[in-house]
Amino acid sequence: MKNRVTITYQDRLLICFLAGVLGGTIIANLLGGEMKQQIGYFDTLFLAEQGLNWEGKRQMWLYVLRQRGLEFLGGWLLSVTVFSIPGFYVLSLMAGGSIAVVLSVITVQKGVMGLVFYLASVMPHALCYIPIALILASWAGEEHHLLRPLGLSLLVLLLVVGTASEAWLSPVLLHFFTNV
Q1: Which of 9, 35, 106, 165 is positioned for an S-S bond with 141, CB 3.0–4.6 A?
Q2: Mind listing the pLDDT tens digit of every residue in the chain (180 residues)?
Q3: What is the Cα 79 distance to its own chain's centre?
C-alpha cells in the first residue's frame, strides 16, 4: 500500500511564503542600483522620525494605526469570504516576497549588520503582527467562517500595541543600532 503525502492548508501557506521569499530574493538581486537606493529609505525615514516632537510622534502613530488598521480590516474581511483560502495564499506569497526584497536591500546597504538592522526595524511590532496574521489565516482555513467578537477584540488590541511599538519603539531601537 502506498503512503500518501497530504499537503494541508498550513503547508500550502508555508510553501507560498517560501516561494515569495525565493522570488523576492531573485527580484532584489536583479534590481539596479538606483532602484535599490529608492527602496532603501529606512535611514532617512527613521532619522527624520527621531527629530519629531510629541505631537509629531503622535501623528506618526495615528498614521501607522490607520494604515495597519485598514490592512487588518482587509485581512479580516478576506478571512470571512469564500475567497479566503486562495486570498491568504496570495497574501503569504506577497509577505514572503516583500520581506525578502527589503532584507536583501538592507543587507546590500548595511553589509553584515543588515540583518541586525532589519530585525531592529521590524521585530518589536512583528511580535504583534505575526500572531494577528497567523490567527486570521487559521480562521480563513476553517470551513465555517464565524465572526468571533472576543477574538476580534483581542486582535484589535494586539494591533494597537503593534502600531504603538512600530511608531515609538522601533525608531529607538534603530537609533541604538545605527549608533553602535
Answers
A1: 9
A2: 678 889 999 999 999 999 999 999 999 888 766 666 666 555 555 555 556 787 888 888 999 999 999 999 999 999 999 899 999 999 999 999 999 998 888 888 888 888 888 888 888 899 999 999 999 999 999 888 777 889 999 999 999 999 999 888 888 887 787 775
A3: 17
- Give the integer Cα–Cα distance in Å for 21 and 92: 10
User: Using CA atoms, how far apart are residues 172 and 164, in angstroms rounded to an integer?
Assistant: 12
Distance CA(70)–CA(76), nearest Å, equals: 10
Amino acid, res. 125: H
CB of 87 closer than 8 Å to CB of 10: no
- The end-to-end CA distance of the chain, in Å, is 60
DSSP, res 81: S
- Alpha carbon distance 150, 157 (integer Å): 11
